[in-house]
Amino acid sequence: MDAPSLSLPRKRGRGRRGTARRKITLALAASSLLACIAFATFWILSLGPAPRGEGLAYSTTVLDRDGRLLRPYTTPEGRWRLPATRADVDPRFFDILFAYEDKRYAQHHGVDVLALGRALSQLVLNGRIVSGASTISMQVGRLLEPRSERSFAAKLRQIVRAIELERALGKDEILALYLSLAPYGGNLEGIRAASLSYFGKEPRRLSLAESALLVALPQAPELRRPDRSVEVARNARARVLDRIAAAGIVPLDEIERARREPVPAGRKLMPMLAPHAADAMIAAAPERSIHRLTLDATLQKSLEDLARDRARALGPMISIAIVAVDHASGEILARVASADYFDMTRAGQVDMTVALRSPGSTLKPFIYGLGIEDGLIHPETLIEDRPVRYGSYAPENFDLSFQGTVTVRKALQLSLNVPAVAVLDKVGASRFTARLEQAGGALVLPKGEVPGLAMGLGGVGVRLVDLVALYAGIARLGTTITLSEHFANELPIEPPRRLLDPAAAWQVANVLIGTPPPENAAGGRIAFKTGTSYGYRDAWAVGFDGKRTIGVWVGRPDGAPVPGLYGRAAAAPILFDAFARTGKLPQTLPPAPKGTLIASNAKLPPPLQRFRGSSENSAALRIMFPPNGARLELASGEDGKPEPIALKIAGGTGALTVLVNGMPLPENQAGRRRTLLFAPEGPGFVRLTVIDGAGATDSVMVRLQ
After folding, report:
1. Most buried residue, 17, 122, 443, 636, by CB count within 10 Å?
2. How far apart, in whole angstroms, are the C-alpha atoms of residue 408 and residue 385?
3. Angle at Cα 374 formed by Cα 372 and Cα 376, nearest 5°?
4. CA 272 – CA 279 distance, rounded (Å)
């Protein structure tokens, strides 16, 4: 009876003590948990904000008009690090990448819990790491904060950073960081640098074998570098192919073909198209990381190959420069500044497109253009090609022969020297120089020299880019614009500059398109002119169709003569090949402008039927009124039409012919009168030209308002 009553108090004591212990245990556990949370929070806060790649230094890149890579430069640390996005890479690469690296990339939030649990269980069961659990987000976190140690704390850091990155960035942004930063051995970072270096192409189109190798390399980039060990790289690629074969995402026969594909045994050179233009762009704006030019990468490469091949065929130390432009916009489509940038024997790093060289006969079209504009000549005008002397200067033709009486058309097409000098003598060398400079084509005379007749045959210095701009002015029917290779140029747009009257420019183009082409080339498609400087130092060919103008220079950069090097044989074939390599059929030239005089020699006004040089002409012919550059107010008659304007002429011999904007007056006979009237069509610019019976001329430009 007593025992039960004695045991009851003891049970109640033990219950109270057990409850107290449980409370203490729970309190300790809660305290430990809070301490762990506090420590973890403190540790995470001590890591600082997660880097997002904002301050990364990427390779400076120069792109073409369509965004294609022309030339990249290494970072200041000497690394090739090219930015890349998902759109820059072959879509199948991502199927392989996710299957091999991160199957649930699209679903997880930085950490793949299933993969992490599997890795931990394998570690416990095997006592060693059997498989990793790093997601792409974790790898990006490690790449943004590179550390050499491999520890539990480092793995925790990657997990934290991955979660932070997933909260701050989108999946594609994280993937872009991986594509730009993943290591591929040596100084290669990112898939674009690796693809360009190992395969010589952008990663937009990769084979299965190439994709598998690029997935395998970042796992152990230095160990698996194909340029160091092809066998190790092949084995790594094979493991990736085995994994995707097991996943069933690629047919087995395609995987077998990929296994047999060779592994690249070395690295290729990075792209280096338009190196001179790229260097100039970098020097002009070193603070920018991406530069875009108007060049077309495909055409640039084709013309660089053309220049390299032709220079080697022409002989040692020969270089070639080519400039191709769209003359409607002034955009430079290709600029080959030398035959080979790395060839020191050809002075490859010297930019010959901006070097001053003697233009030879390439200025003749502008001489004849001014002569046509002034009413001195017409393409069908007869002109003498005979020995002549201007003081101590006696021009000769290239072949030391003379053709006698020829048309201006034939004189230009055959590039005869004597007729060109005769027209320049009438036009005036100083006026000719001023007109070309006004149009943007600076002519550089030897020190201490003044403009003279010899400049018509190459006695000046000119740059290839300026010469191309002037020829583009002919193609544009008389106006020039500044050439540019800066894409979407933010500089103010300059108005077109006057080179020739539209009718004169069209007449010159019409003559040049009939120039006999080089052997094995079709004629009548490209208007072109060749030139050879004194002593065979420079060979030129410049031509245009209705869309493009291309100029070619051939010679030695040091200016040494090259016997037998002349424009028609050396430069003209390259010019026609360059047009062929544009991939477009030649465009037709524009139609003749209104008021263009098209007639045979017999139907020309008498003064235009035959050109007479200065020694044969009277110098006294002058238009006294209106003066050149005058502005005249138009008065309306009773019928509402403008009243006639008086034209007063002094001097001259014989009957006079008056041209209004290149067209004879309706009555076509001024006779011997020195004052006559002409009826203007309306407001605008009018060029008045008078020609006497001996061929002397005078011309003025007035504005009617």
Report:
1. 443
2. 10
3. 65
4. 11
Cα gap 339→353, rounded to integer Å: 11
Identify the active-site residue in 134, 197, 358, 361.
361
Q: What secondary structure does DSSP assign to 94-150, as a single string?
A: HHHHHHHH-TTTTTSSSS-HHHHHHHHHHHHHHSS--S----HHHHHHHHHS--S--
Helices (H), ranges, 170-328: 171-181, 191-199, 208-216, 230-247, 252-260, 275-284, 297-314
CA–CA distance, 91 with 72 (Å, rounded to integer): 24
**pTM (2 d.p.):** 0.81
d(CA 368, CA 366): 5
Which helix (H) or strand (E) is 207 found in, with range? none
Question: 697-704 and 631-632 as β-strands: parallel, antiparallel, unpaired?
Answer: parallel
pLDDT at 663: 82
Quickly list H helices, 597-667.
Answer: 606-609
437: Cβ contacts below 8 Å, ≥ 6 apart: 443
To the query of whether residue 287 is one of the catalytic residues in this protein, the response is: no
**DSSP secondary structure string for all residues of 553-567:** EEE-TT----TT--I
| Amino acid occupying residue 660 | V
Length of the chain as a residue count: 705
pLDDT score for 618: 40
**Start-end of H helices in 333-407:** 364-373
Span 471-529, pLDDT tens digits:
999 999 999 999 999 987 655 678 999 999 999 999 999 999 999 999 878 889 999 99
Q: Which residues have C-beta within 8 Å of that of residue 546, sequence separation ≥ 6?
A: 475, 586, 587, 588, 589, 590
Classify residue 459 by its DSSP letter: -
Where is average pLDDT lowest: 6-15, 128-137, 213-222, 354-363? 6-15
What distance in Å separates the CA atoms of residue 195 and residue 72, rounded to the nearest whole number? 14
CB of 165 closer than 8 Å to CB of 138: no
To 10 degrees, the CA torsion angle through 394, 399, 402, 403? -140
Report pLDDT digits (tens) over 419-474: 999 999 999 999 999 999 999 999 999 888 889 999 999 999 999 999 999 999 99
The string of DSSP letters for 494-546 reads: PPPEE-S-HHHHHHHHHHHTTSPPPTT--SSS-EEEEEE-TTS-EEEEEEE-S
C-alpha 661/C-alpha 375 separation (Å) is 9
Task: Lay out the sheet containing 663-664: strands in order across.
Answer: 631-632, 697-704, 684-691, 657-660, 663-664
Residue 151: the pLDDT is 57
Residue 670 identity: A
Going from the C-alpha of 461 to that of each of 135, 359, 421, 432, 451, the distances in angstroms are 64, 7, 18, 15, 12
The answer to whether 381 touches 408, Cβ cutoff 8 Å, is yes
Among 101, 164, 210, 384, the active-site one is 101
**Which of 151-165, 504-518, 563-577, 635-649 comes out lowest in average pLDDT?**
151-165
Closest listed residue to residue 651, CA positions, set 604, 613, 693: 693
pLDDT tens figures, 229-252 = 999 999 999 999 999 999 998 999
Q: What's the rounded Cα separation, in Å, for the pair 626 and 632?
A: 8
Going 127 to 132 to 138 to 141, the CA torsion angle's sign is: positive
